[in-house]
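Long-time lurker. I teach an intro course on protein structure, and each term I like to show students one example going from raw sequence to a predicted 3D structure in token notation. This year I'd like something fresh instead of my usual example. Would anyone be willing to generate the tokens for the chain below so I can use it in lecture? Attribution to the forum is fine with me.
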Amino acid sequence: MNKKTAYPTSLFLKMLKEDGVEEVYLASGLPKNQSLPGKAISADQDKSAGSPALLDLQAKALQCTLCKELAAKRKNVVFGSGSTQARLMFVGEAPGHDEDDQGLPFVGQAGQLLTKIIESIGLTREQVYIANVLKCRPPGNRQPQPEEILNCEPYLKRQIELIQPKIICALGAFAAQTLLKTDTPISRLRGKFYDQGNLKVICTYHPAYLLRNPGEKRTVWEDMKMIKKELENFE
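-- Reply from a regular --
Happy to contribute to a lecture. Here you go:
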């Protein structure tokens, strides 16, 4: 693989460099005639702006009290953010402390890493859509309970219907197993696309897992290259 660009001083790309990866795709370095997936929106619009149906869904989620414990202990409902016309959507497990505090998905340390992962294939957070299976933080960051999944899953399904992404990247075992309705380990789910009606699902390791297990950085990079290549089919 020929070296094509210098590496930004970001955690993910530095990790890739250490593992011998020599080619990345930067949003600022794309050819002038190459279009990007999705319609970017400004930072002050990232709470589902531009889509009345999505705004209505968000309003309902903000008032949701189906999960009594989560509703009582949350600071914010973390609905989702990004482009309402995104071709690529990322789905994680549930909000953490920082997400609950700010009301936005993936804004903590793992979220910063996700931003770098997105940038490594030439996109920005504003050009994708990011959400979680659960919209409220489980106390102590415990795993979501089955009844909480049942209560919250309709919000995610409706988000997907309204945004109509071409590809969903499931981040981590929980999101992957929820979306694909399986208990297969993430290590066996990743590395390929799964047809789900009019879209494709690909699974990869959660950024939080990657922070704890940097040896899997190249694995995630391989999954990201698959996503980039597949997105080119929709341009």
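Some talking points for your students: The two ends are 24 Å apart (CA to CA). The chain has one domain: 39-234.
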